[in-house]
Predict the structure.
Amino acid sequence: MSLKVLQDSSDLIEITLNGVQKKIIYPDTEFECFSVPLFVGVNDIHIIASKGNSKVYETSISVFRRSELSSEYTSPPPGFSKNYFHMEDRSICTPCHTLKPGMFDRKPVDISAFPQKNLKDEIKNAAATSTCYSCHKALTAFPFVHGTSSVWSCLSCHEPGAFPKYSVSKPDARMCYTCHIKQKEKWEARKYFHGPFTTGKCAICHNPHASDYPFNLMKSTWDLCVSCHIEKGSGRHILERYMIGSGTLFHPTRGVLDPLREGKELTCASCHNSHSSDSPKLWRLNVGSGFALCKKCHTG
Ligand code: HEC
Ligand code: HEC
Ligand code: HEC
Ligand code: HEC
Ligand code: HEC
Ligand code: HEC
Ligand code: HEC
Ligand code: HEC
């Protein structure tokens, strides 16, 4: 969205998101660019330019951010339509930004060499050469950045020749496995598969760019699992079948340390594999029964 403000007609531009102020601009250059992070669901963005105490210009837009993790947000309410930035003429931006991708936007990524290298300089250089960085820098501004995105090899996944432009081939798994070959071999050789894994929807759980959580997960592990398995968040899980009659005992699924993974919190992933497993109920630790699973942690 954009708002045209005639020179000297305004001394303050305010941007609000769902009624909350997100940014203030004191106009002093010809062009002011900003980005606002969106919430899942409807986002009402409002720009108001004012002089003194009176509004001189305003504009607003409603943007819907979808998420497959919540049935409420899988599809937009009536009235929203898709709007692709890169499908339209954007020559108004090109005096200052480059929109034509280059070879360096498709840097080869060597997954086996990745963790060993000191990436600091490489990441800085990668950001500096990236065509996409100047507009999309907010995408990687999180503590856990996915390897490919950290070096701004955006075209490893986004095809300029695709329709719509830059769309990513589906299912995700096919694209993810072009690099994660080891995982593909290991996971597909197992006996039992997790629902969303079977449908190849890796990006339902992993953000391909970056996130606040380890493994670039969309939410913390517990919140992620419970967004689909709501009933497992009740505290009744685990003991309800294995200790009949113990109606008052609850088994923790978070908030305590995992005895088997040093320094990590106990979560759903302490007992279950998110992708596939050789054990029923997707148990980790290669156990044949729930009781054998208990004994891995409760040795007494
Ligand atoms: C007159 C030059 C100029 C024009 C024209 C221009 N930009 Fe920018 N834009 C900039 C500069 C300079 C920055 C970097 C600002 C900074 O780093 O604080 C920027 C940053 C951005 C950002 C990142 C903002 C952020 O905070 O993450 C976005 C998004 C953006 N521009 C989009 C656009 C779009 C879309 C257009 C065309 C509609 C456009 N710009 C036209 C100069 C321009
Ligand atoms: C001039 C600024 C600018 C540059 C440069 C830019 N983008 Fe965008 N891009 C945008 C804006 C604005 C949007 C719409 C808001 C959003 O989705 O973040 C967008 C949206 C997208 C989308 C969502 C689909 C769409 O068309 O709306 C993809 C994918 C994308 N950009 C990829 C890229 C890649 C890859 C590069 C580098 C080769 C790139 N962009 C460079 C501004 C830019
Ligand atoms: C590992 C593959 C991968 C890499 C690398 C990658 N993306 Fe994406 N990107 C995706 C997927 C998957 C989606 C979701 C598309 C969908 O499901 O419609 C997406 C969506 C987007 C979107 C639109 C929605 C959103 O999340 O904001 C933008 C913009 C975008 N990518 C820009 C970039 C830029 C810029 C880079 C370079 C840092 C990049 N991507 C690197 C896979 C990737
Ligand atoms: C172009 C190559 C490439 C593609 C495509 C790719 N990745 Fe990655 N991925 C990497 C690299 C490189 C790393 C960093 C490896 C490391 O740190 O061990 C990584 C790391 C990860 C990690 C973190 C691993 C860890 O142990 O911390 C996850 C999770 C991940 N990728 C998921 C995905 C998903 C999901 C997709 C598809 C949406 C995908 N990747 C597509 C190259 C890729
Ligand atoms: C239901 C959610 C979910 C789905 C779907 C999913 N993952 Fe994961 N993934 C996780 C969680 C949770 C972890 C961290 C597990 C842990 O804490 O040990 C993880 C860890 C990873 C890792 C790092 C650890 C490792 O074993 O190498 C990679 C790489 C990865 N996932 C890639 C993928 C790919 C590729 C797909 C699609 C084929 C996918 N994931 C689908 C939830 C998911
Ligand atoms: C996007 C929704 C979604 C998310 C997120 C999700 N699951 Fe699932 N899960 C499913 C579906 C769908 C099934 C298959 C249901 C069925 O077969 O009845 C399933 C099945 C399971 C099963 C039962 C397998 C069996 O053989 O009975 C376990 C265990 C499980 N999930 C654990 C997890 C864990 C742990 C997480 C978090 C890392 C998680 N799930 C996240 C959708 C999800
Ligand atoms: C301490 C180990 C442990 C933890 C932690 C754990 N589970 Fe389980 N899970 C089990 C056992 C044991 C079973 C088999 C129970 C049964 O047969 O009723 C099971 C079964 C399941 C099933 C299969 C559904 C069914 O009723 O057959 C799902 C889905 C599931 N767990 C999800 C989760 C989620 C989501 C979390 C995190 C909130 C979680 N689990 C945490 C041990 C665990
Ligand atoms: C991954 C490790 C792990 C597995 C597997 C596991 N537990 Fe636990 N369990 C824990 C931890 C950690 C606690 C909390 C201990 C504490 O609070 O000090 C706990 C606590 C308990 C408690 C005490 C609850 C209370 O309110 O005091 C019972 C009973 C229990 N577990 C039974 C089981 C049973 C039955 C199984 C198998 C179905 C099982 N556990 C599997 C780690 C595990």
Summary: The beta strands are 12-17, 20-25, 41-51, 54-65, 144-145, 192-193, 210-211, 276-277. The chain has a mean pLDDT of 92. The pocket of heme C (ligand 3) is lined by residues 132, 136, 139-140, 148-149, 152-154, 156-158, 168, 172, 203, 208-209 (CB under 6 Å). The CA atoms of residues 15 and 21 lie 6 Å apart.
